[in-house]
Fold this sequence. Notes:
The structure holds 2 protein chains of 2 kinds.
Chain A: H1 2-26, E1 30-34, E2 43-44, E3 50-51, H2 53-65, E4 69-73, H3 79-84, E5 90-96, H4 99-102, E6 106-107, E7 112-121, E8 138-142, H5 146-154, E9 159-163, H6 166-174, E10 180-184, H7 185-194, E11 199-215, H8 220-235, H9 238-257
Parallel strand pairs in A: 1-4, 1-5, 8-9, 8-10
Antiparallel strand pairs in A: 2-3, 5-11, 6-11, 7-10, 7-11
Chain B: H1 15-38, H2 46-51, H3 53-85, H4 90-105, H5 108-123, H6 128-153, H7 157-165, H8 170-200, H9 212-223, H10 226-254
Helix pairs in contact in B: 3-4, 3-6, 3-9, 4-6, 5-6, 6-8, 7-8, 8-10, 9-10
Amino acid sequence: MIFRLFFLFVTMTACMTSGRSAAAESVKPLVVGMELAYPPFEMTDKVGKPSGVSVDLATSLAKSLGRPVVIENTSFDGLIPALKTGKVDLVISSMTATAERAKSIDFSDPYISTGLCLLLKKNSGAKTIADLDKAGAKIAVKKGTTGHIYATNHLKKAHILVLDKESAAVLEVSQGKVDAFIYDQMSTFQNWQRNKATTRAILEPFQQESWAIGIRKGNDDLKQRVNTFIREYRAKGGFEQLGDRYLKEMKGEFKQLGFRFFL
Amino acid sequence: MNSFLVQTHGRPVPPAARIFSWLLVVLLVAALFSFAFSHLHYGWNWSAIWEYRQKFIQGWLMTVLISAASLLASLLIGLLTALARRSALLPLRYMSLLYVETIRGTPLLVQILILFYVVANAFGIENRYLVGILTLSLFAGAYLAEMIRAGIESISDSQLESARAIGLTRNQTYRYVIFPQVVRQLIPPLTGQFASIIKDSSLLSIIAVSEFTLNAQEVNAFTYSTLESYLPLAVGYLVLTMPVSLASRILERKFHYAT
Lengths: 263, 259
């Protein structure tokens, strides 16, 4: 009798707790890591709330998974370690999918393609990236970005200056302390617009790249769902909407200047 | 009451007790760290950073250079500022007060950025290593100035009166009476400040000075092995600061006399 009661009690408790944990599992927030220093993709609005293309993408993705979204603001070179150690579930931070990074983490299908461009100081005579591969040239890069990787692998003769923040690198170019800053096409354009008197830009990309969502290795189920989401989102015109909401001005200006625009 | 684990401060500690207690401490700390690291789901990858050991070594040497230069310069600046604070010339006195209060009241990060991108840029000084050393020296110099000034002012008036009574000039008083005592008092806070300089040099990484921290961060960026890059960083700084504390203890014992 006692044994049967005890058995019943244990079974009931097991059912209740497993039920609760299953329910808790599905409403566990989706923690997305990004560096909120990259307008208009990752930025904060006037009151400090995360906003931008990647934030909206993350919110839509979380909604499709049925989980609340939590944006974790992490510095760019700390995103992959944060993903590896489980501090974040996904990385949506305009991160390029490279073979080197793919050794550490998995990437979803690409969702945007862009390219590396140059922001040059005003009196620099360089016309292509190859002009900068000579002794005495100083190139600024942002730590951990594909610009950093490209410069280290391909610009062996130039002196590479590794900086933590995009703003510091732009300051270095505008003050003439470095010859060029390697960064993506859009930011190069924006930085050039803001510093027209002291800089010039080469907006034809010398290396094509595509951005993807970062997922921890072994998390294949999540990866499949993310890929499905990207496919469906693109099919229903989600990316066009994002482009209109955040990048309309830039699209127009690029068209005027005759440059290819993506998205 | 003295036993194996208890010994009143100042009395010599028997070697057996010392070894046993140190062992206990090391075991406790090791247990704490094992617990912390065991909860980490992390794929260790030491081979990747072994490839980049040259970067670590170069960065470490640069940190040694920058710290040594800043140490000397800051000591000089601190000494001059402390004397200026007690000077009879009013503009000098107020200038040094302004310098000390401003530098001590603002973050080093802000000072590095302003001194390099604004002040040095205005004067056309391009060399970021020079500006970095200067910034660090100015920063530490303000703190050292206050420590030295406190040391000088702690010498009781009776000593100054006695010095005057036996006919010593102002310079002689400083040289034979004040400074020997001040040096003894200064050794603990001074070594603290020196260790601080060594560690604060890591902030120079934000203006792309290629010192130890920046190199470790670059290796981390290439290999995505964060802990394997940052643990050698901690060890490297310890290797630099331990001789400083060792020297401090030796000097303290040497200058230990009743005043």
